[in-house]
Amino acid sequence: xxxxxxxxxxxxxxxxxxxxxxxxxxxxxxxxxxxxxxxxxxxxxxxxxxxxxxxxxxxxxxxxxxxxxxxxxxxxxxxxxxxxxxxxxxxxxxxxxxxxxxxxxxxxxxxxxxxxxxxxxxxxxxxxxxxxxxxxxxxxxxxxxxxxxxxxxxxxxxxxxxxxxx
Length: 166
Description:
The chain is mostly beta strands and 166 residues long. It has one domain: Sandwich (Jelly Rolls). 0% of the residues lie in helices and 53% in strands. A hairpin with a 2-residue loop joins β10 (95-103) and β11. The radius of gyration is 19 Å and the shape is globular. The mean pLDDT is 88.
């Protein structure tokens, strides 16, 4: 068997990862102007998106307009990464904005990311975790205002879930 192309030896590619054969999702949007209501200080709320173009690139995931990223593949562990660009709509006072992810309606763990925000400029914040997903499990990006009930505006968001290799 020839192991070269134009007399250039081929390497052993048996250990290369074919990302297109793996389960993954990447969802993002830019230009959201909708307010996410925060009914109680420190309580997480699902983000509200209107007027933003949502881009989805996924294998064995679906993303719906109500903000649910649903897994359709076989059980597995995923590296999860979320980034938001957001601010609150209250007074020009620093507030503690928070970010986390829920799985099937409950926090994936007790961790969340937080950052102060003055309500004037948008702030970047990231959250990462590892999550086990079974068929039909769904993920939702959640935000809160740790200090008050000022609404939150998520201008941009991206979420990635990539199957961990064993």
